[in-house]
Specification:
The complex is a heterotrimer. Chain B is mainly α. In chain B, about 75% of the residues lie in helices and about 5% in strands. Chain B is globular, with a radius of gyration of 19 Å. The relative contact order of chain B is 0.19. By secondary structure, chain C is mainly α. Chain C has 15 helices and six strands. In chain C, helix 1 packs across helix 3, helix 1 runs parallel beside helix 4 and helix 13 packs across helix 14. Chain C is globular and about 60 Å long. The N terminus of chain C is likely disordered. Classes of the chains: A alpha/beta, B mainly alpha, C mainly alpha. At the A-C interface, helix 2, helix 3, helix 4 and helix 5 of A face helix 9, helix 10 and helix 11 of C.
Chain lengths: ~260, ~300, ~375
């Protein structure tokens, strides 16, 4: 079992608030890891630090053998990490296709001459990209295919979340960070979403996923391993069944001993 | 350098710094409370100055000329008019654009500034030309070597400092100030605590605009002149000062204001051949500072939720 | 999955009809001299536009433009030539047409910066002026071929612009606003105190001369008089067409997408590998290049440059053009430029009030129709493409 992502002593302060407190965490390749904990325990901060949105105060983040602690977001993405956001961050005026293509940035030819002058070659790349995006969208919601060039603003929340996941998956990352993907969805929609994620993972054998969730049924169902955070510290880890019955975890969530 | 000359420069810097600080504080108040850049602020200052001038002319026509009395009336009228203007701007332009991207508010207020500026230029009698502003403070001076310590400057400095201190007191010692700070901190929480959000926003805008009126009159008294473009540059300087100090922080705005004034003086001393370059120098340094410390010398209170 | 640009004529009709009507209207507006008739024509236009927007006609016209953009582009060029042919010996009108073309190029440069990449530039007129002053200096002091002066003017503007932008790239929107406003204000003062650049009087600019052909000469073909401004029209036309085509391709490419991504959500864009600084620099620099090049030609057309033509207020006019026409929509920009340039020239009474007028209009637009006259449509990479 190789370690894909590892943090050592990760600390992040905001003014007086300690969001991450000497966090040691490791994620094994090809697993699905659940990251849980009460509100404010540092889960999203963890994602933000790993993806370079926040700087760390102290500690180290190593991904696939490379130290990415001080790297900028674009560099980190190129090492193979993609993510979704807790508060859906799609570009609303842009089409489904455009939004997904933003996720595909590193695979598209960005040269100015190519884009402006070599229109025939561009057309070929465009059509290939369209097919790739379409294949992905079909897994999650086939009815969205005919709306590929409609603005995302007109979509329902659950469809927007699906597109956001497509955006994160289009360039076949090694590590996918999902931040509360089921927020705002019904139970059936959540189950469907999880099925879709598992299906894509089946197509892409080398995908590792870390998922932040409050819906425990999801965590129980799809994760191989769980990490529980509280006040920026890891308080338990192991398979879901095990951490669910851990006394410290229960106290963190419910406040009972 | 001669001590008297140095003292002159210092005095100059203090005067300019106070004016810039007054404008910068306005920007920071607006940003703190609504997260908006109200670009028309400088031109509101111009309106304040011209209102004061118009009051002076009007009082003169009525035969009222007694100095401190006239100045007081001018001050009151200008403050009332600009406060009202500030509230109107907040109510009919800024608040309705809250849901739009912040860029739209910036653009709208920028355009509004143009409207105010052009209105003064076109509709005030001879508005396109610089107008002389009356000298209404006692001009007795104390001469210490090369340094001419003028009483009117001292009075203005004291008044300006008083206004800033007064603002600090309002913000930190009164219930109104507490409400303003609460709204600046977190709108949701402030509302749920029973604070009338809209009223506080309007009051804040009135307050900031009144400061601008004061700065406008001070500017007029200091230079004995006022013209329709006065506020524009003052506004940009005030805005830059507020940013470099740290948007959202009153102390930052004051610091930024005095910093800019100091830079202008230093620039004027270093480049005596063309005083226009002092502004270039000051802005260049300020821009470099912004590049070095983007969130301001005193931390800007932005918290982007990711 | 082939490009169906050669389909049936139907989608072309609404757009072509709108274009024809607009061209006839413009000719009429430019030809009429009496103020009351002009006001009447303007009222007619406003009423018609408001009326049409209530029907479905507007939508079919915009669909027409999005499906058959290339064909309609060609027709627009024909329309421009038609206007010039009609006013072939009319100096004033042809100068107006050239001004429209050059301002459009500047506004399109601003569109790349502001409309596409979201980088604020409130010193557009200053960069225009930099181009014009470059032409003045190069044409009088050097023997640089005049055609070459145009891109050089662009390069100088781009260079100075990059000096401005580098410090504030990492920071938020309003920083770029402050920097460019300060530059706009100080640029004019800088020109005024610099006697080497003519001071407040400005400088003369020798007319354009391409390989011996002096553009400042009128031409006569038999009995047909052609104002010398028609020569400049030809050059401006080539520049505008080139700019327009380049801009449309830019927008309908991965680069256009990068700009949108970084304008709409910088943080998320960074998380997907987009180098924010790089693309902002590219947008800002390229935009200034276009603005500067257009300014260089403008200097040669007008024959002189002075600080008073390149003020902060003029920069705001450029911004107004974008906001009125529809930010990010090249066609909207062209239409808005025509309106902004022609109306104050024909309606002499409002010349003095034009800054006030446009600023007020923009405020109204921002409050009630922020997308502008022609909202920017969703990106279609190839006109008429179907999956």
């Amino acid at each position: 079992m190789t370690t894909l992502l590892e943090t050592r002593g990760l600390t992040k302060n905001f003014g007086g608030v300690v969001a991450l407190d000497h966090l040691d965490l490791s994620v094994a390749s090809n697993t699905i890891v659940g990251l849980i904990g009460p509100n404010g325990s540092g889960k999203t901060t963890f994602f933000n630090v790993v993806t370079g949105i926040y700087n760390v105060d102290t500690g180290v983040v190593v991904f696939d053998g490379t130290d990415i602690t001080r790297a900028a977001s674009p560099t980190i993405h190129r090492t193979g990490i993609s993510r979704t956001f807790q508060r859906s961050r799609l570009s609303l005026p842009l089409s489904i296709f455009d939004n997904i293509m933003i996720g595909n940035h590193t695979r598209l030819t960005q040269g100015i001459w190519f884009n402006l002058m070599r229109r025939r070659a561009f057309m070929r790349e465009f059509e290939a990209s369209y097919l790739a995006a379409r294949r992905l969208v079909e897994v999650f919601e086939p009815r969205l295919v005919e709306r590929m060039f409609d603005p995302v603003a007109g979509l329902a929340m659950i469809d927007r979340r699906r597109i956001e996941i497509c955006r994160a998956m289009i360039n076949q990352p090694k590590l996918l960070l999902l931040d509360e993907p089921s927020a705002g969805m019904t139970h059936e929609e959540t189950t469907a979403l999880m099925d879709d994620i598992l299906q894509v993972r089946a197509l892409n054998q080398h995908l590792t996923i870390v998922i932040v969730e409050h819906e425990m049924s999801i965590i129980e169902r799809i994760t191989d391993h769980c990490v529980v955070l509280n006040f920026g510290r890891k308080i338990a880890e192991g398979p879901y069944r095990q951490v669910a019955t851990d006394a410290q975890v229960q106290e963190a969530y419910l406040g009972v001993t | 350098m001669d001590a008297g000359l140095l003292a002159q420069y210092v005095m100059n810097g203090l005067m300019l710094g106070t004016m810039y600080a007054l404008v910068a504080v306005g920007f920071t108040l607006f940003f703190g409370v609504l997260d908006v850049i109200k670009f028309s602020h400088g031109d509101v200052l111009t309106v304040g100055g011209f209102t004061a001038l118009a009051t002076f002319v009007g009082l003169g026509a009525l035969g009222i000329k007694s100095s401190p009395f006239v100045l007081l009336i001018m001050l009151i009228v200008a403050i009332v008019v600009t406060a009202a203007l500030g509230m109107l701007i907040a109510r009919y332009l800024v608040l309705p654009l809250r849901t739009a991207p912040p860029l739209n508010t910036l653009l709208a207020t920028l355009m509004l500034g143009t409207v105010l500026r052009e209105a003064v230029r076109l509709f005030y009698p001879q508005g396109a030309n610089p107008k002389s502003f009356p000298a209404l403070l006692p001009t007795d001076a104390l001469t210490l070597g090369q340094f001419n310590l003028r009483l009117d400057n001292v009075l203005m400095l004291a008044a300006g400092a008083g206004v800033i201190v007064g603002l600090q007191l309002i913000l930190n010692r009164t219930k109104l100030g507490l409400a303003i700070r609460a709204v600046a901190q977190d709108e949701e929480t402030a509302r749920s605590m029973g604070i009338n959000y809209t009223a506080i926003v309007l009051v804040t805008f009135a307050l900031g605009s009144a400061l601008a009126a004061f700065a406008g009159i001070m500017n007029g008294l200091y230079y004995n002149e006022i013209n329709f473009g006065t506020g524009l540059l003052l506004g940009v300087i005030g805005f830059a000062a507020a940013i470099v100090g740290g948007l959202g922080s009153i102390y930052g705005a004051i610091l930024g204001g005095f910093l800019f004034a100091a830079l202008q003086i230093i620039g004027a001393v270093m480049l005596p051949f063309a005083s226009a370059y002092k502004d270039v120098f000051a802005f260049a340094v300020v821009i470099a500072l912004m590049a070095w410390r983007p969130t301001g010398l005193i931390r800007e209170k932005i918290s982007e939720r990711v | 999955m082939r490009d169906t640009a050669h389909g049936p004529l139907a989608p072309l009709l609404p757009g072509a009809a709108a274009l024809a009507i607009a061209t006839v209207y413009l000719i009429a507006l430019l030809a009429v001299e009496t103020q009351s008739l002009i006001i009447g024509l303007l009222m007619l236009a406003i009423v018609t536009v408001l009326g049409v927007s209530r029907t479905g006609l507007w939508a079919s016209v915009s669909r027409s433009f999005s499906e058959r953009e290339d064909a309609l582009g060609l027709l627009s060029i024909v329309a421009a030539f038609a206007v010039v042919a009609f006013f072939h010996d009319h100096h004033f009108v042809l100068l107006l047409v050239v001004t429209i073309l050059l301002y459009t190029i500047a506004a399109l440069g601003l569109t790349i910066q502001f409309g596409y990449a979201g980088v604020m530039n409130f010193a557009g007129a200053s960069f225009f002026g930099i181009g014009a002053y470059t032409a003045a200096v190069l044409n009088t002091q050097t023997a640089v071929p005049h055609l070459l002066v145009l891109p050089i003017g662009g390069l100088v503007a781009a260079l100075i612009g990059s000096l401005l932008l580098l410090p504030v790239l990492r920071t938020r929107g309003h920083y770029a606003a402050v920097v460019t406003i300060a530059f706009a204000l100080l640029f004019k003062t800088f020109l005024e105190v610099n006697d080497g650049l003519g001071g407040p009087q400005g400088l003369q600019v020798p007319g354009m001369n391409i390989l011996g052909w002096s553009l400042n000469d009128n031409m006569t073909f038999g009995g047909f008089e052609l104002s010398f401004y028609a020569n400049y029209f030809a050059v401006s036309m080539v520049m505008s067409i080139g700019t327009f085509v380049l801009l449309r391709r830019l927008d309908r490419s991965w680069i256009g997408l990068n700009f949108d991504a970084l304008r709409l959500d910088e943080t998320a864009a960074g998380c997907f590998g987009i180098d924010i600084a790089r693309w902002k620099i590219i947008a800002f620099t390229f935009g200034n290049f276009l603005i500067g090049a257009a300014g260089a030609l403008f200097g040669m057309v007008g024959g002189f440059v002075a600080p008073n033509n390149y003020t902060f207020a003029d920069s705001l006019i450029l911004v107004s053009i974008l906001l009125l026409g529809g930010i990010g929509n090249a066609w909207g920009v062209a239409v808005a430029t025509i309106i902004v340039v022609v109306v104050p020239e024909k309606l002499q009474t409002i010349q003095e009030y034009r800054f006030l007028l446009y600023a007020s209009l923009v405020i109204i637009v921002l409050l009630f129709r922020p997308e502008g006259l022609l909202p920017r449509p969703v990106r279609r990479y190839f006109a008429g493409w179907r999956p």
